[in-house]
Amino acid sequence: MDLELGPADADFRSDVRAFLDEHLSEELRAAVAASTGTFCDLSAMSRWHAILNERGWVAPDWPMEFGGPGWSDTQRHIFASECALAGAPPTHTFGIRMCGPVLIRFGTPEQQLHYLPRILTGEHRWCQGYSEPGSGSDLASLKTAARSDGDDYIVSGSKIWTTLAHQATHMFCLVRTDFDVRAQAGITFLLIDMSTPGISIRPIVNIAGDHEFNQVFFDEVRVPKINRVGDENAGWAVAKHLLEFERGGNYAAGLRARLGWVRRLAVNSQADDESFRCRLARAEIEVTAVEMQERRVISALSLGEAPGNAASLLKLQGSELTQKLDELAIEAVGPRMSPVDAEADVAMGRYLYDRSVTIFGGTSEIQRNIIARTVLAL
């Protein structure tokens, strides 16, 4: 595996860096730096989304015929890494990285024509209706029901831990349309307009004091059947395809940026602590290991090979290493922890928020089970 970029990819990286230098303002960087959760404020996210859309770079994974830039796997990796290292805000992720690819793979031409351009512009902001009270890791046990009524489904039930539902215009949602078959066989994938009568949202403020999560209730909500993606009772295959996008991605650059943040926090408090320096060095080795794993995946993809179980491996490594870096950050700011210290406040907020990163998108236990079954044949 050649770890060096070829001339064309090196030129592309230079173009991306020049673009970021020109368009990523200090105000946008500051919004990310002050964020404790996965997402910064909606205003910054929307402005960055619009900037990227104007350049044609907002949907790196999409084919050109649907508005994507037509990049190679290596170029997508370069772009994501440079954005993370530069401290760029996220885009409207649930539409760009989840719903969009699902519609490109499974959607009807009419659905693609209606939804995809609006995802690109940011007119439609999406949330994910998967988890329910009692149906998280065992997603196939979900009970939110959709009964057929002519040209519509009538949806009743609730979804929980619904990230950014309070800001979303639409939800992609798993519902049960058959209770008399094997659990996975009775699930259907629906697109739901969040302004539909019968939908209510209850905020869930997390331990870090952030409002990203919600519980969403459906009380006899009427959803047109033209909003179904794929066949009735065949939503499980659609859901699994989407989870590949949720669990995969670029962890290494974000981890490298967070490692640098921890180092800056530690300059005045832990510089002479040998134990701290050793643990920070071990964390850097683990970040490098994630970088190598990602490069192996990119190399395989560029050769037309399947990446195998890389999504689960990277999800496991990336989420657990995030928590290790948070713990080091708390130790670094500990001597000056104060409610009026902005850096310490962000460090504590990230530490508290990131307790969830080994849960959402598939718990660490689930990832280990997948790896044990598919890699070790246990």
- State the secondary-structure class: alpha+beta
- Helical segment tally? 12
User: Which oligomerization state do the chains in this entry correspond to?
Assistant: single chain
How many domains, as an integer?
3
Structure description:
It is built from 12 helices and 8 strands. By secondary structure, it is an alpha+beta fold. The two termini are 29 Å apart. Helices cover 49% and strands 13% of the residues. α8 packs antiparallel against α9 (274-302). The protein folds into 3 domains: 7-91, no CATH class; 126-242, Butyryl-CoA Dehydrogenase, subunit A, domain 2 (Beta Barrel); 248-374, Up-down Bundle (Butyryl-CoA Dehydrogenase, subunit A, domain 3). It has a 4-stranded mixed β-sheet with strand order 1-4-5-8. A hairpin with an 8-residue loop joins β6 and β7 (213-224).
